[in-house]
Amino acid sequence: MNKTIAFITILALLTACHSKKNAVVIAEEKPVVEKYKFENITPSDSLFTSISKQACFGQCPIYTIDIYNNGTVILNGKNFLDKIGLYKKQITYPEMLLFATTAKSINYMQLDDSYDNKLVSDVPTTVTSIVLNKKRKSIYDRYGAPKELKKYELLFTQLLKTKGWIKIKEDSNF
Q: Is the CATH number of domain 47-169 2.30.30.30?
């Protein structure tokens, strides 16, 4: 009888330890997904992030890209790029989240508002903007911006190269 009780006790302990191991493994396998809510600053302001690439003395691409909280993207191509005119496309939540997480990872909101050197000429100007935690920040980048800001600007360049753009207007001057 004592051997039977000892056997059942050992079996119960082994089973309990085994199930705890599985519980830990299951908990570790679940991915942690950050949920980010894209919110308007005001009811009429749903712009999430944007970029404006401005002229230089050469053939620098001139365009603006606006990304709205619902994933709508508007490209206004002016000069020196494949898409001249007004274009539209829709991006997914993970694509939008990439802009938010990149901005957070580079501390966009803590970067200077302007990077410039008036003694340097013939460089294009880039202006970016984003809304995080219902606060908008814009950065003027003409010369001397840190590589972290360039990393954020590159997201727009990559978006510009994606498929799915639909031309909605020939003339981009509006």
A: no
